[in-house]
UniProtKB/TrEMBL annotation:
GO cellular component term of the entry, any: cytosol
A GO BP entry: division septum assembly
Family per similarity comment: Belongs to the TRAFAC class TrmE-Era-EngA-EngB-Septin-like GTPase superfamily. EngB GTPase family.
Protein name: Probable GTP-binding protein EngB
Keyword Transferase set for record: no
SUPFAM superfamilies: P-loop containing nucleoside triphosphate hydrolases (SSF52540)
PANTHER family found in the cross-reference section: ENGB-TYPE G DOMAIN-CONTAINING PROTEIN, MSS1/TRME-RELATED GTP-BINDING PROTEIN
Pfam families from the UniProt entry: MMR_HSR1 (PF01926)
UniProt-listed InterPro entries: G_ENGB_dom, GTP-bd, GTP-bd_ribosome_bio_YsxC, P-loop_NTPase, Small_GTP-bd
Cofactor requirement: Mg(2+)
Length: 202
């Protein structure tokens, strides 16, 4: 897909603030600093549209990025950062649950994990949450350029096993440095959008 227009249109904390366009939404969920913003920026070939932060836990809203005036990437608050208070974590959890369970235009979730490490308990809980609510999802494993290519298979199948993924296609290895996985991700996204256009909406 050739991205001509990309902009952040809003940061929301509750449904009253969500966009009302009816466009498909693809959410990105993952630990703080796992590379969700870098994934968005690489896909749309912009250096800094999505906000990256050196301070984990800083994103406290659902950030809606409108792409080509046709769909949204939705960057949700990162989880698993210890310095965030329990009260704050509970608030974020409620915000995420409301969005994931009530948003009709949410079409797919990208669960973003770090290719270098085995998925954390938080990653596994997030995957179980997504499955519990029967949301279509794929896993994006970032920073694969940090691992020697000869060890890719070992890391790939370790992540697949830990998350109990149904198929190899459920997991895309990604690197913002080399562009690994960009084409696969766009192929998947284009399929999701085509399906969304064929689905009748209220």
């Amino acid at each position: 897909m050739h991205v001509q227009d990309a902009e952040i249109v809003m940061s929301a904390v509750d449904p009253k603030q969500y966009p009302a366009t009816g466009f498909a939404e693809i959410a990105l969920a993952g630990r703080s600093n796992v590379g969700k913003s870098s994934f968005i920026n690489k896909l749309i070939n912009r250096k800094a549209l999505a906000r990256t932060s050196s301070k984990p836990g800083k994103t406290q809203t659902l950030n809606f990025y409108l792409i080509n005036n046709s769909f949204y990437f939705v960057d949700v608050p990162g989880y698993g950062y210890a310095k965030v208070s329990k009260t704050e974590r509970a608030k974020w959890g409620q915000m995420l649950e409301t969005y994931f369970t009530q948003r009709d235009t949410l079409r797919h979730v990208f669960l973003v994990v770090d290719f270098r490490h085995e998925p954390t308990e938080d990653d596994i809980q997030m995957k179980d949450f997504i499955e519990y609510y029967n949301l279509p999802y794929s896993v994006i494993a970032t920073k694969c350029d940090k691992i020697p290519r000869g060890k890719w298979n070992q890391h790939f199948y370790r992540i697949k096993k830990a998350l109990n993924l149904p198929s190899d296609e459920s997991l895309i290895m990604f690197s913002k440095e080399t562009g690994e996985g960009v084409e696969k991700a766009w192929t998947l996204i284009e399929g999701i959008l085509a399906e969304h256009q064929q689905t009748p909406h209220n």
